[in-house]
Amino acid sequence: MESHKVYKGEKAASYDENAQFEKGNRILHKYLLEDILTFLDYTPKTFIDLGCGTSFFSSSFFDLFPNIKGVLIDGSDEMLAQATEKLSPRDIQVEYVHSSFQDLVLKDVVDPIDVIFSCLAIHHIDEAQKEILYNKIFNQLTDRGVFILFDLFALKDPSEQKLLAHIAYRDIQRKLKKYLGIEQEGIELEELSLGNIKRNDTREKKREGDQESYLDDIVGTLKKIGFKHVILVNQENRFISIVAFKKN
């Protein structure tokens, strides 16, 4: 199932609340994005957020660069509605585009772009579609442009993959216990057992049609397409952050 068909109704409405438990260290990821953006030796005039969700990360672009023009793209109309509601009070240049990645024709909706960003979205499509999308991204960027990818990834060795999953489940468990105020020893709930967290995670990944790429394959594909520098800047259990510079 395509992810935009999943993020409807209650699931879309509760996305940000659930993300604080399920999507790694969101605050750290936001700081990381801002660190990358402030590293650039120019002030970007335009950006795209592919799979923008509720605009959690998009807001950082407007915070850092008040005059930037943003194009927020998502396949879920309900997620776009939340993004619109959050950003509407701000005096910013923003366009919202409702489109799946498979149907997206970037050159028809935007001019050449300085920064293209995507967080936890591209892993929903298959390898052939990813390569097509990465080519679209490369071709849409200005020569000084940069592609920033935060996403899930997989390891080829099953035992190594199990370790990353275990660390991720423990992280979810700790956050939930802290949220519920039951961090002390001796209080155990079946809902918060690692086994139950694993079952829920497996079910959701299947429901959303997750198709994580191998890390080496992501880097190799981006280099093959033509990105001059492809840098892994962070790994947090199953989450990676990659910066790909087109020319510089």
TrEMBL record:
<dbReference type="InterPro" id="IPR029063">
    <property type="entry name" value="SAM-dependent_MTases_sf"/>
</dbReference>
<feature type="domain" description="Methyltransferase">
    <location>
        <begin position="46"/>
        <end position="153"/>
    </location>
</feature>
<keyword id="KW-0808">Transferase</keyword>
<keyword id="KW-0489">Methyltransferase</keyword>
<dbReference type="GO" id="GO:0032259">
    <property type="term" value="P:methylation"/>
</dbReference>
<dbReference type="Pfam" id="PF13847">
    <property type="entry name" value="Methyltransf_31"/>
</dbReference>
<dbReference type="GO" id="GO:0008168">
    <property type="term" value="F:methyltransferase activity"/>
</dbReference>
<dbReference type="InterPro" id="IPR025714">
    <property type="entry name" value="Methyltranfer_dom"/>
</dbReference>
<protein>
    <submittedName>
        <fullName>Class I SAM-dependent methyltransferase</fullName>
    </submittedName>
</protein>
